[in-house]
Amino acid sequence: MQTQNNMLWVEKYRPKKIDDLTGNDEAKALFLEWLKNKRHTKKAVLLYGSPGVGKTTLVLAASQELEFSVIEMNASDTRSEKTINAVAKPATSYKALDNYTKNKTSGNVLFLDEVDGIAGNEDRGGVNAILKVIEESLVPIILAANDPDIEKLRPLKKVCLLVRFQQVRIPLIIALLQKICMLEHVSAEFEALERIAQNSKGDVRSAINDLQSLSEENHRLTLQDTMMLTSRNKDITLDDMLKRYFSAQNIAETSTMLAFSNIDYDDFLLSVSDNLPKRYSNPSELAKAYDYVSRADLFRGRVGTENWHLLKYFYNALTLASAINPLSYTPFTFISPPIRIITLFWTKGKRSTLDAICGKIGAQCHVSHKTAKHDFIPYIRVLLQKNSKSPLVGWFKFTPEEVDFLLKMGRF
Amino acid sequence: MTIVLNCKGFKLPRVEREKFVNLLHLGLDYDRNAGLFSIKSFNNIEKVIDAASDILGDDIVFLQHCIRCGKDFPCRGCNYIELCSTKNLPFSCVCPQCLRVRKNFETTYLTQF
After folding, report:
1. Distances (CA, A) of A104 to A36, A49, A70, A91, A98
2. How far apart are the C-alpha atoms of A200 and A206, rounded to whole Å?
3. CATH code at position A207
4. Domain end (from A204, A228, A252)
5. In A, residues 151-170, which contact B (CB 8 Å cutoff)?
6. CA-based angle A408:A409:A411, to the nearest 5?
7. On chain A, which terminus has fewer CB atoms closer than 10 Å, C or N?
8. What is the per-residue pLDDT for A324?
9. Which residue in chain B has the smallest CA separation from A176?
């Protein structure tokens, strides 16, 4: 279980009360007025504003304070028509039974976070399903989005009360950081906090993360410490990251760089793995490095899409892989993008042909693609090698290209 | 010249019906008894400022409310004005004096925890 000491400060100091939320007092007031009002003129509210300004925190704090039970669907859930109907419809169709027990609540609220992230095939029909749920709902519905101006959210904006969240102002972020420093017994220079707040660009969450990463160990924070704090660069390329990662002089440098980057963790892990043999020529060093990378991979799997508090272990393991022998670094040409991704790209045609063949076998023999691939194809290949015009070709309805593919294919 | 307004209540000269309705649509509220406008919705705050400036024929700025000392203050004394995306808008903030004086912070915040 997580103790208070090893928690992320963002979670530890997430406001439990509405009054503790930093900034956006006007948005808070409007939202609370809507939530407290039993006869809503609009059944749903759309909170919008840039990341880290307190939208989710306000919903959770307000629900706790006003005793609502929150039923949440966020970006990590698939939000297709089917799943929304399965989760949201029951949640919004009935009043909470808690009212009949000793612990009375105000009922349910449905909270759909990051609705602007509803996209792609997995979330097909999601927006229309939400509209229908709003129309029929008996409980308040709260939506949150970073960017409400995207085309697909237009129908939602028409039926929602809009509440805009502004970027949190620098003085307010500094005030919050001062408060955290005091509670965590961190002695911080004002200028250092000022720099962190300016660097965050109104994102309270990133400011708190920066403060924790820079001051957690020493309980001291000087302006000098914040010099490593480069402005969050969302456009940094994988090559740049690899260059900085492999040329880092010490663990702290790598650790800070990883913590402040926004690169895809999985791609980066694969790229590090590809490039390690170029970095370490000594086999024992290479073995150690791969050991750390495998641990990082293990933690990446455990982080998944929910357990972000484990991310620091992923960083730690990956950092150690770069620091087996910092002095032996000599520049080299990076392999990028990761070999696995390049391989998937080049074999896309072959994989789709194989998939089509498996589909035809599956349809005729009533088996899954997997069974067709592993249990049928090896025998069909042997039969075709003996007689490429075997009656099987007609029975499976294989095209000449597919027969050719089966004859020439190596391993699969 | 810049006119400084307080968002809790400010006066505007009489305007034609169309402009008055537009102000209410943009998010202002009007207290008929006191003859004062106040800001009800902050969603279109930039447009509210444009409309009010147009009526007053001058630039307008709003006073900020300090969450630490409770005083109202203008943005012009702030060190971060160039970096602020919401400067001169009527939002709560921390005044430059309170931000620098740690003692003031301790008395305000530690009582809340």
Report:
1. 16, 33, 14, 17, 6
2. 6
3. 1.10.8
4. A228
5. 162-164, 166-167, 169-170
6. 145
7. N
8. 84
9. B109
Strands B28-31 and B36-39: antiparallel
Do A41 and A152 have their domain in common? yes
Structure tokens at A359: 């589909």
Number of domains observed in the structure of chain A: 4
A277 and A146 housed in the same domain: no
Question: Could B93 and A172 be called an inter-chain contact, meaning their C-beta atoms sit closer than 8 Å?
Answer: yes
Using CB atoms, pick whichever of A30, A170, A202 lies closest to residue B41: A30
Residue A293 and residue A263 in one domain: yes
| Structural domain range at position A148 | 24-164
A13 in a structural domain? no
- Does B98 share its domain with B44? no
Please, is B70 exposed, middle or buried when counting C-beta atoms within 10 Å of its C-beta (0-12, 13-18, 19+)? exposed
- Verify that B35 and B72 share a domain, yes or no: no
How far B12 CA lies from chain A's nearest CA (Å)? 22
Q: Which amino acid is at A363?
A: A
- In this complex, is the C-beta atom of A33 within 8 Å of any C-beta atom belonging to chain B? no
pTM of the predicted structure, to 2 decimals: 0.61
> What does the alpha-carbon distance between residue A249 and residue A347 come to, in Å, rounded to a whole number?
38
Question: Could you tell me if B12 and B40 lie in one domain?
Answer: yes
Chain B residue with Cα closest to A26: B42
Q: Would you state the pLDDT for residue A328?
A: 76
How many structural domains compose chain B? 2
Among the ranges given (A223-237, A344-358, B31-45, B47-61), the one the predictor scored with the smallest mean pLDDT: A223-237
- The boundaries of the domain holding residue B102 are 64-113
Query: What tokens appear for A216 in the block?
Result: 């957690």
Distance CA A210, CA A174 (A): 12
Alpha-carbon distance A227 to nearest alpha carbon in chain B (angstroms): 19
Residue in chain A lying closest to B8 (CA): A26
Same domain, A30 and A75: yes
To 10 degrees, the CA torsion angle through A12, A18, A20, A24? 110
Q: Is B107 on the interface with A (CB under 8 A)?
A: no
Q: What is the pLDDT of residues A317-371, one digit of tens each?
A: 888 888 888 777 777 777 777 777 777 777 788 888 899 999 999 999 999 988 9
Contact criterion met (CB < 8 Å) for B91 and A164: no
Task: Report chain A's mean pLDDT, rounded to a whole number.
Answer: 81
**Best of A12, A22, A26, A162 to mutate (most B CBs within 10 Å, chain B):** A26
